[in-house]
Amino acid sequence: MAVDVDATVSAAPAASGTSLGDGRTLGGELARGRVGRGPSSLWRDAARRLRRDKAALAGLAVVALLLLIALFAPVLAPHPPNDQSFRIKLQAPSAGHIFGTDEFGRDIFSRVLYGSRIALRVGLLPVVIALVFGVSLGLVAGYYGGMVDQVVMRLIDVLLAFPWLLLAIGIMAILGPGINNVIVAVAIVYVPAFARIVRGSVLSIKAKEYVEAARAIGQPDARIMTRHVLANAWAPIIVQATLSIGQAIIYAAGLSFIGLGTQPPGSDWGVMLASGREYLRDGPWLGIFPGLAILVTVLAFNMFGDGLRDALDPRLR
To answer: How many whole angstroms separate alpha carbon 82 and alpha carbon 79?
Structure first.
């Protein structure tokens, strides 16, 4: 939990000599980057609340299970995901193929397991990329303000002017289809959201007394931004990142569904939905199981993200 330094700290001499107890001074703690974080940890409080949120814990358990499935897919899958056998094509769920087979005789259960690897890849990597660029842009724009803020935020507004699907399709039209290009496209779609959230937090935090005190004792801007401002702005960033993962999985599956993402015979859930829509009458299991996989995965990330948002909400402390 961020701790505001008393307003009496208004100049460099006062800042460097103000006692914080136990032989510590404000100047010394600022130099070490400790002021602004506070002894009462926000994360400790959040973890305590999160442990009481059963829905969030259930979502976290499903996410952990999904990670294990993705890691051990070659061991868990009863058949290679791309092995074809026209003798058993469109076979209903049975003991040998618990999710049935598709139009090429491929085992759907194995393909769903391998699809978790692609789902996590297209869910996590775009968010990480957007996090890096969005946080950097929002931090610089919010801290310096003025012309820097105007230029950065007008670029962000240009990206926000396009619906996500049109923006992603435009990017894919330039880069071409493929899973790596999907990751880039979804990351660009998410950069504005992170930039705006970080900018809003920075505008509030940079006016705090401990930031003013850090400036007063002559700390460089880079250190103030990273050790005092950004360190106290991580809560909304982490919540946004958690909620964005589920949305990124849906976006990537949608692009694959229309043929711009993972290309056949890849075990992408969106690709499986696209191929299964032609057999909904004769083989509804082709679309049911990859659709359920998307539903459960996105729901788990959203449940965990909602719980994390409630745990980090300062109004509940």
So the answer is: 8
